[in-house]
# Entry
Amino acid sequence: MGQIGTDIRTLKDPTEKIYGPDLFNAAKEGKITEVGGYQFPKPGTDTLVPKVIFVTAVSDLGCGVGYFK
# Structure
């Protein structure tokens, strides 16, 4: 699920939990921060599972990568 060009502050998971502001606030240049506490369907399934994302910032851009627990 690509998010290029998306204002992450508006993101929410399928349970309607808003998590975008957590990602936005955690992205700091020179630091990688783990953010979790939301759920997404694992690819190939409809079952919601916990997901964790690591975020950082480079200049005025944010970058994140996530994994399913």
